[in-house]
Design goal:
Distance between the termini: 7 Å
Shape: globular
CATH architecture of the largest domain: 3-Layer(aba) Sandwich
Number of domains: 2
Number of helices: 15
Oligomer: single chain
Strand content: 15-25%
Largest sheet: 7 strands, parallel
CATH superfamily of the largest domain: Glycogen Phosphorylase B
Order of helices and strands: EHEHEHEHEHEEHEHHEHEHEHEHEHHH
Helix content: 40-55%
């Protein structure tokens, strides 16, 4: 495509739902172009500054954050942060000289992609959710292409720019279906007992954690094992309850093994989680987070519930209903099979490849 190595900036972060799809696409680009020079740009105080280097990529941080929904003195700094981040983005772009920029959502992505389009650098964005985020909506008229994971996204974006790609997932997750024996050994579980995997998202989920904690005796009496990812904040509390039947983790890096061990899953309804669950074909109970823009997790969940591809428990009902719903599902093999079969229709294993195809198309139209 070019005599010199391809140079690409990828921006996005704040949560794993933005970071891991970005890393998956970076890996696909590197597979196609081993000499490609890839730079990530994120928010300097968010989890991407740890997770991206662990994946083997360089990252630069911007001093950027979102507007607080409650009255907060931090909102006074927001316009200053935006200006500073755009100026730093312009400097990064001038120094790195990318051929194309890709945004995966989050405020750092907004600043970087806005700066890129000011400099007429080809740009594309990826929207993971069924309800578009504010950053991507602000960029919709500036970028060349918009990759989406749900139908009906012309509600938010120019139809002529839309490309249906699905949500990229970590490659190791795709290889989980034949790893049950290895996963049972890895988590030191009893192969004869049923297992629930609880994942509250990369930052944790207070309501899910509290609901599980208050139901530990119920699960113990039922002889059920738990693999419990708590997130950072709740980990010290949950760790006190760890036992032969309850395995507690702040964060699970070996998600392929966690999925392989699980009979059912309890999860937030982030786009990445749903994409992974569809590909590993696991029956799931979704507990959408109410603390997200435009309540998009409930919309994500309802897209599955309406097709009988998942069960849902509202966050406000989780303390009373979650454990009961989970045990009922564990004891209903027919419902498990139905949910697993239906959710698999939402899976797109080649999403990263599709986004890389869009990137190549944008570059080709630039006539490099």
């Amino acid at each position: 495509m070019k005599d010199r190595a391809l140079k690409i900036i990828i921006s996005g972060g704040g949560t794993g739902g933005h970071i891991y799809p970005a890393v998956a696409v970076a890996q696909e680009i590197q597979r196609r172009y081993p000499d490609a020079d890839i730079l990530f740009v994120g928010a300097s105080d968010r989890m991407e500054m740890e997770k991206v280097p662990k994946a083997g990529y360089k990252i630069v941080g911007l001093w950027i954050s979102g507007i607080q929904r409650s009255l907060s003195y931090r909102n006074i700094l927001w316009p200053i942060k935006v200006i500073v981040s755009v100026l730093k983005s312009l400097r990064i772009l001038s120094q790195f000289k990318p051929d194309v920029c890709i945004g995966f959502g989050g405020y750092a992505s907004g600043a970087l992609l806005f700066a890129a389009t000011l400099k007429k650098i080809p740009a594309l964005i990826h929207e993971q959710n069924s309800y578009a985020g504010i950053t991507n909506k602000l960029l919709r008229n500036r970028v060349n292409r918009i990759c989406v994971a749900y139908d009906g996204m012309e509600r938010f974006f120019p139809a002529g720019k839309l490309v249906y790609t699905g949500n990229p997932v970590r490659k190791d997750v795709l290889n989980s279906s034949h790893m049950r024996h290895e996963s049972i050994a890895h988590f030191k579980l009893n192969a004869a007992k049923k297992t629930i995997l609880i994942i509250g998202g990369s930052l944790g989920a207070r309501t899910i954690n509290e609901s599980i904690n208050r139901s530990l005796d119920v699960f113990a009496k039922a002889g059920v094992q738990l693999i419990w990812q708590t997130g950072k904040n709740y980990y010290p509390t949950a760790k006190k309850s760890e036992s032969d039947q309850v395995r507690v983790f702040e964060f699970i890096y070996e998600m392929n093994l966690a999925y392989a061990a699980a009979d059912i899953v309890i999860s937030r309804a982030g786009a990445l989680s749903i994409a992974e669950l569809a590909l590993v074909k696991k029956p799931v109970i979704l507990v959408p987070s109410p603390n997200v823009a435009e309540d998009h997790q409930t919309k994500n969940a309802m897209a599955l519930v309406s097709k009988n591809a998942a069960l849902m428990v509202a966050d406000k009902d989780a303390h009373e209903q979650l454990a009961h719903t989970a045990l009922n599902l564990l004891n209903d093999t027919a419902l498990q099979q139905q949910l697993a079969s239906t959710i698999s229709s939402f899976g797109i294993p080649a999403a990263a490849e599709r986004i890389a195809d869009v990137l190549e198309n944008v570059l080709t139209k630039k006539a490099l």
